Amino acid sequence: LELARIAAKTNSRVLIMGESGTGKELFAQAIQNESSRRNEPFVAISCATIPRYLIESELFGYRGGAFTGARREGQVGKFELANRGTLFLDEVNGLPLDLQAKLLRVLQQSEILRLGDTRPIEIDVRVLAASNCDLMLEVENAGFRKDLYYRLNVVEIFIPPLRSRMEDIELLIDHVTKRLSREMGIPKPRISADALETLKGYHWPGNVRELEN
């Protein structure tokens, strides 16, 4: 948390590491909220869930008629939407290698090129990235570009899994039940001692997301 607060005061890129469900996007949003870009857009995209043939147009946008099925008026990409703000690249390890090369160029040049266009567009975007696997291991296995890794990993924040910080269980339960009770307009439920012990004895492979659900 302290490292995130320090990073928020700079314009450095941040790589957030942690298992699925640990709250990486919440950390990214918190860094944005504490930064000088807090009043500008925060745009998030999951690099692993968008089909390969769409990810480039999602990131960089395209001119009208750039490919079959493209909108006649074209489309603005996530980088342009995040201009002057923050772009959060979740599951950045899911980017194909050719897209990694294009992302590296964008980070180096601070400009993008829409698909089907010849005119580069200058951008001012802070990039935060997250991975649920060891990116350095991916680099060693030739699944991730080393130069892009060092571009993204200026500040690294590791969020530990819930099973290694079980002292947080009660705080998290209190936070979640307060919020849900408020949303549903019902009294906040009491968690019995037996139920709490059961929750503390569980492994939580889905981390905080699983606990909340």
The level of helicity is: 40-55%
Quote the distance from N terminus to C terminus. 24 Å
Would you list the SSEs in sequence order as H and E? HEHEHHEHEEEHHEHHH
- The total strand number stands at 7
Radius of gyration: 20 Å
Q: Would you identify the regions where 5 or more consecutive residues have pLDDT less than 50? A: none
User: Quick one: biggest sheet?
Assistant: 5 strands, parallel
Structural class: alpha/beta
Across the major sheet, the strand order is: 2-3-6-1-7
Please tell me about this protein's structure.
By secondary structure, the protein is α/β, with parallel strands linked by helices. It has ten helices and seven strands. The strands form two sheets. Strands 2-3-6-1-7 form a five-stranded parallel sheet. It has a two-stranded antiparallel sheet with strand order 4-5. Strand 4 and strand 5 form a beta hairpin. The protein starts with a helix and ends with a helix. The mean pLDDT is about 90.
Please name the defining characteristics of this protein:
10 helices, alpha/beta, 213 residues, elongated, five-stranded parallel sheet, 13% strand
